[in-house]
Specification:
Strand content: 15-25%
Radius of gyration: 20 Å
Number of helices: 4
Order of helices and strands: HHEEEEEEEEHH
Distance between the termini: 70 Å
Length: 162
């Protein structure tokens, strides 16, 4: 369990909260719940309704769709933020790789905070934009590798005696 000072220092280091004033961070950190999860625990599943953002305090989680890993997240990273802004189901599952402690921020807590300090919305938009760019990069690399593999197979096929 984090002390209130430790919680403030931790939340201050999370990228989406970095540029916010301390008085706002104190308020935000104080309303977050702290949850503990054992290893190999599914925090949420793709398709589930979600209205919470999670911040990894300790441990490591795996973001995945089925058996395909999208990311591994460690201390100071957040996940689940997309569900705070739309009514869509979770786009991926998150499972702990080891015992984890997380802080949780609900949609209502965030909306109350944005009303008070609109700058937090800009930070979250930046985070979402970075994640989309990273996924685009990964998808481009995967597509290039697939094209190369297909080209290699076609080339190999033309040299096969008939």
């Amino acid at each position: 369990m984090l002390t209130s000072v430790d919680r403030l220092l931790f939340v201050r280091a999370v990228p989406i909260f970095k540029e916010l004033r301390d008085d706002f961070l104190v308020r935000l950190a104080s309303v977050m719940d702290e949850l503990s999860f054992p290893a190999k625990h599914t925090i949420f599943t793709e398709g589930q309704e979600g209205r919470s953002l999670y911040i990894v305090v300790s441990g490591k989680v795996r973001v995945h769709i089925g058996n395909r890993d999208l990311a591994k997240l460690e201390q100071g990273t957040c996940f689940g933020e997309m569900s705070l802004f739309d009514a869509e189901p979770r786009s991926a599952s998150v499972t702990t790789l080891e015992p984890c402690e997380c802080l949780v921020l609900t949609q209502q807590q965030l909306y109350d905070a944005i009303d008070e300090t609109p700058g937090i919305a800009i930070n979250i938009i930046r985070l979402l934009s970075r994640r989309i760019r990273e996924l685009n990069r990964v998808n481009a690399q995967t597509a290039a590798q697939s094209q190369q593999s297909g080209s290699d197979l076609r080339s190999a096929g033309t040299n096969v005696p008939g």
